[in-house]
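So, could you explain the following?
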Amino acid sequence: MMGTAIGTIIMAAVLTTYIMCVRGFTAISNYWEIHTYGRYSIDRFAGDMRGVSSITSFATNGPLVVVIPTVFDSSGNATSTKTVTYTYTAKALKRTDSTVGIANTIATNVYSLSFKLYDRVGNATTLASDAKAIQLELYLRKNMGSQKQTEDYLSARMDMRNKP
């Protein structure tokens, strides 16, 4: 009887330790996942925004539609362009390139997103024609069941080099 009691206590301790380790590994895995998606989406966004020549459509929570030159003549003038659209729907950030026409999901588990425009001197603006820089703020969250488990916040402000 004494052996059974000691064995039960040891098994309870081992099981508790196992459950705590699994929860910890799951939390690390979730953070890695959302941070990887977030970094990838920020990198894609930065690459596109550096080449923007004009903003076609802008809303704080998306969509954001920009024009990017793809071919230049010998004088440096754009002879061909593409349109890139960023949309936020159903907890996902999607990027659509007009040359491909397919919306690719570049981030999941997004619970909030905002775009902000800035003029040449760094003041916030809402006019696409006055904008020289654009910022993406991305909030990501992974839930376990009904509880928030892991959150991440990423932000990047990029100058649009081809925009006059």
Helices lie at 2-50. Residues 1 and 138 are 58 Å apart (CA to CA). The mean pLDDT is 90. The radius of gyration is 23 Å.
